[in-house]
């Protein structure tokens, strides 16, 4: 079965501190993040698209903007759970999939790049 996957990339900045961490990351510090969202479908819509970027991008932007230029430790749920790249990527996945998943289109993964050298890919497959 064929699968089509489209990617939408966002950039955002934020600061955090990791509670209970032994090392430099226990102190507040920031990152310039890159988020890559992957949406897949096995069939295209009547226009020949997985999803219209003009539809998907504003939804993803709105969700990402909840974190942009914020101190994550003050943004729920990260006021209670550590704002690690893993927890942030899982939260982004759940928020985005709740709005973009349909009978035909599914969010397959998000990849959150914290530095040019480290990233987390989260999926529920």
Can you describe what's shown?
With 125 residues, the chain is an alpha+beta fold. The protein has a single domain, classed as 6-pyruvoyl tetrahydropterin synthase/QueD (Tetrahydropterin Synthase, Chain A, 2-Layer Sandwich), CATH 3.30.479. Helices cover 22% and strands 32% of the residues. The chain contains two helices and five strands, in the order ββαβαββ. The chain has helices spanning 53-64, 85-100, and strands spanning 4-16, 29-41, 70-71, 106-113, 119-122. The protein has a five-stranded mixed sheet. It is elongated, with a radius of gyration of 16 Å.
> Over the alpha carbons, how many angstroms does the gyration radius reach?
16 Å
Shape: elongated
The CATH class is identified as Alpha Beta
- Helix/strand/pairing category: alpha+beta
Provide the succession of SSEs.
Answer: EEHEHEE
Instruction: Give the helix level as a range of percent.
Output: 10-25%
Give the low-pLDDT segments: none
CATH topology, by name, is Tetrahydropterin Synthase, Chain A
In round numbers, the mean pLDDT is 96
Number of strands: 5
Distance between the termini: 17 Å
Please, what is the oligomeric state? single chain
Task: Name the CATH architecture.
Answer: 2-Layer Sandwich
Biggest β-sheet: strands ordered side by side in the sheet: 3-1-2-4-5
